[in-house]
């Protein structure tokens, strides 16, 4: 059974700590929606599919999958080196090296790579919150 931030986590955390859910949701939304509409040297690009693929891949790494998302997008949009980087930073941050950082998206700006880091860290935080809040929900029922 799905346990999502929008349907379950947000409301539970707001019940336990009023206004915290709103603050966390705004933080997640700001990072998720952040874009300059550029990719490398191309401007005017809709990056929403890429951002969604990164977010959902991080959740997938932690065992959270959504029935309404086509995970084929992840394989189409995220190259192997980017997946390795995301998984390393999300799961084993102490093993992150400059070499892994430079291996993906070689022609991209550092600001775009920083945005990847922001996306994956916020998605990781949301995944951890979902596990914790689901445990609290099970305890309460």
Automatic annotation (TrEMBL):
<dbReference type="GO" id="GO:0016239">
    <property type="term" value="P:positive regulation of macroautophagy"/>
</dbReference>
<dbReference type="GO" id="GO:1990253">
    <property type="term" value="P:cellular response to leucine starvation"/>
</dbReference>
<dbReference type="Pfam" id="PF04636">
    <property type="entry name" value="PA26"/>
</dbReference>
<dbReference type="InterPro" id="IPR006730">
    <property type="entry name" value="Sestrin"/>
</dbReference>
<protein>
    <submittedName>
        <fullName>SESN2 protein</fullName>
    </submittedName>
</protein>
<dbReference type="GO" id="GO:0071233">
    <property type="term" value="P:cellular response to L-leucine"/>
</dbReference>
<dbReference type="GO" id="GO:0016684">
    <property type="term" value="F:oxidoreductase activity, acting on peroxide as acceptor"/>
</dbReference>
<dbReference type="GO" id="GO:1904262">
    <property type="term" value="P:negative regulation of TORC1 signaling"/>
</dbReference>
<dbReference type="GO" id="GO:0005634">
    <property type="term" value="C:nucleus"/>
</dbReference>
<dbReference type="GO" id="GO:0070728">
    <property type="term" value="F:L-leucine binding"/>
</dbReference>
<dbReference type="GO" id="GO:1901031">
    <property type="term" value="P:regulation of response to reactive oxygen species"/>
</dbReference>
